[in-house]
Design brief:
The structure is a homodimer. Chain A has 3 domains: 44 residues, 434 Repressor (Amino-terminal Domain); 128 residues, Rossmann fold (3-Layer(aba) Sandwich); 136 residues, 3-Layer(aba) Sandwich (Rossmann fold). Chain A is built from 13 helices and 12 strands. In chain A, the strands form 3 sheets. The first copy, chain A, has a 6-stranded parallel beta sheet with strand order 2-1-3-4-5-11, with helices on both faces. A 4-stranded parallel beta sheet of chain A has the order 7-6-8-9, sandwiched between helices. Chain A has a two-stranded antiparallel ribbon with strand order 10-12. In chain A, strand 6, helix 9 and strand 7 form a beta-alpha-beta unit. In chain A, helix 1 packs across helix 3. The longest helix of chain A has 16 residues. Chain A starts with 11 loop residues before the first helix and ends in a 23-residue tail after the last strand. At the A-B interface, helix 4, helix 5, strand 2, helix 10 and helix 11 of A face helix 4, helix 5, strand 2, helix 10 and helix 11 of B. The first copy, chain A, binds a DNA duplex through helix 2 and helix 4.
Chain lengths: 355, 355
DNA sequence: GAGGGTCATGTCAGCGCTATCATGGCGAAA
DNA sequence: TTTCGCCATGATAGCGCTGACATGACCCTC
């Protein structure tokens, strides 16, 4: 008896023998049941069940030069934003043979390039990457990938292949315009990490204020450090130390906005009367905060599932007509930017008593 | 010329030809350089570089019946807790040939079992799974996996193989004891999703209160819904409607605690004077909140990297002596449970003015 | 009824790599 | 010098599966 290296698991040949057919017929019955007569199909299914046969992915990949792996590269695990995209992707792939190969670029284009090279060496069925700011070589790798590629979470003019996202510049512009309409005039910007998408939101902010003749670069407070709630507090404190008359802040993301709110509470600065606060992404907590926080709802889950949908269509040879999908975004206006008619800073009572 | 199915990529035979050796020597040079003479090794390395040769993972896996894939199963992508564990795992695997195959069980033991079966069909090098509450069949699959298995984030008596985590019961007990020591007497419990780890924290809460003769099941408020900040608000509101004299809450996790804080702010209930709040996991925002929130620091990143370390040691045949590692946890006492000496509910001024 | 088309199934030869055993050279021990 | 064993390297035979082509049965058309 031949030695088995695969731990005694049955092979396609075992199934074939048991079903009384050749192994290629079993192979066909598993991949494309239509091409096998109902009679044999049934025999084969039975044999598969009896032997608990599971195809060997590696052998399949080697023989067919194709895999059922979809590579996904995101810049952060910790950022809830990508967790939602990921959920969309995984949910879109449930009940399919596809598997996800997940990479974390840590917001580094170099690391992204490295991951891309690694992933491509496995000839994935498709690739989903966050952002449109690959390195030149990264773009070249993607272009030569030989599989569908979907860039997600951003929008640009020249997709490598397909694209699903929204305009960060437009969303930054929309939030800032909203703050202006709410009556705020000395609007600051809090930004962390300053990745390309953040930069584009900042551009939108800048443009909206410039159009209103109210742009003042001194109100922009950023840091390369990665975003956090504490950082939101620190950044707002810095900003107020430099520009005490600032009456609102557009926070680059929701963590910073929450931190800014906490800082206002600590400094006894009334929100929204003396300070308007807007965040970005509209994480679940924004609606629950007190006061509730204005933000921009970004369709993260939808972007993930849509990307999968497009990728699968492309794999199946039905490339969608629309290669670039703009999912849009939605301003969620809440208490934190509902400025009372009379604009005048108001002192507040103490919020709580702790010694 | 032979047709190439792999897209024209060079194979090990190409490298061998270029280096003037046989392909098995190239194979050895790549896997175990020590076994090849320095002379040939150098020639081979050069050929690899010139051809940009990248080994085919599938062919390697098929021929050797081994892979460089480490399967990881977590119950949620959205929960920040697992994001940190994941970071620990990925960081521990950086600069190694290992790759992660990530599965999301969505807190369903059935789904976990399914994932386990799928992953095992690929003969992973190791498996890291969250929790110790597998189904019976899941446990059997793990036991028969034929690879190192690390259960993480919890602690139990009979590891399938290895285990890294801490006692949820003990941590629940510790938090509750702290609330008692701080002077709170009518302590509630807010819990969402109620997965097994949450249940054990609840047990700890129950035990601590029972020991103090203060246990009242009516103060336990739970829901099978998944955790969120809004839910924290809802649960606290429910609890206070039923048991208005509740003077503190142990929240099953930090999202709920934050929601509870917001609810107190909305209801003008002073924290920590009239209501103590403690969370669980000590996410970054807890220290930044206003008032800052007491929580239990859980070493999530460390658990991830430690699990990888143990798995790699086991793969290399050096199974660690300690199969079960208790990482412990640390109570982080902050403003939200620092009750003033005089215990008496205090009214507060309005926090903010929004019309 | 010959020719041609379609369909279900089979044969065969790899995919790119590694396990296994074989080989030859060389130094140490006898 | 002879013998042995060790080491570096090579030849060979698959790993489990699928692509490409072959085969034969059957049906339709003129």
């Amino acid at each position: 008896m031949r030695k088995r290296r695969n731990g005694g698991r049955p092979t396609i040949a075992d199934v074939a023998q048991r079903a009384g057919v050749s192994s290629i017929t079993v192979s066909r019955a598993l991949r494309d049941p239509e091409r096998v007569s109902p009679q044999l199909r049934q025999q084969i299914e039975e044999a598969v069940r009896e032997l608990e046969y599971v195809p060997d992915q590696h052998a399949r990949a080697l023989a067919s030069a194709r895999t059922d792996v979809i590579g996904v590269i995101i810049p952060s695990f910790t950022n809830n934003v990508f967790a939602d995209v990921l959920r969309g992707i995984y949910d879109g792939l449930a009940q399919t043979p596809y598997q996800v190969q997940l990479g974390n670029s840590r917001y580094s284009p170099i690391e992204e390039e490295r991951l891309l090279a690694t992933f491509l060496s496995q000839r994935p069925a498709a690739l989903i990457v966050a952002g449109i700011d690959q390195t030149e070589r990264g773009r070249a790798l993607l272009a030569a990938a030989g599989c569908p590629v979907v860039q997600v979470m951003d929008l640009g003019d020249d997709p490598v292949d397909m694209m699903v996202g929204f305009s960060h510049r437009a969303s930054g512009h929309a939030v800032t315009s909203h703050l202006l309409e709410a009556g705020y005039r000395r609007i600051g910007f809090l930004g962390a990490r300053m990745d390309p998408r953040t930069q584009r939101r900042l551009e939108g902010y800048r443009a909206a204020l410039a159009e209103a003749g109210l742009y003042d670069p001194a109100r922009i407070t950023t840091t390369p450090a990665s975003s956090s709630v504490s950082l939101g507090r620190d950044l707002l404190r810095d900003l107020l130390a430099r520009m005490p008359d600032t009456d609102a802040v557009f926070c680059n993301n929701d963590d910073l906005a929450l931190g800014a709110l906490f800082e206002c509470q600590r400094a006894l600065l009334a929100v929204p009367a003396s300070m308007g606060i807007a965040g970005f992404n509209d994480l679940e907590m924004m609606a629950a905060a007190c006061p509730s926080l204005t933000s921009v709802r970004t369709p993260r889950y939808e972007i993930g599932s849509r990307a999968v949908q497009m990728a699968r269509a492309a794999i199946a040879g039905r490339r969608p007509a629309e290669r670039v999908v703009d999912t849009g975004f939605a301003l969620q206006i809440r208490e934190s930017t509902k400025r009372p008619e009379t604009v005048r800073p108001q002192p507040m009572g103490a919020l709580y008593n702790n010694a």
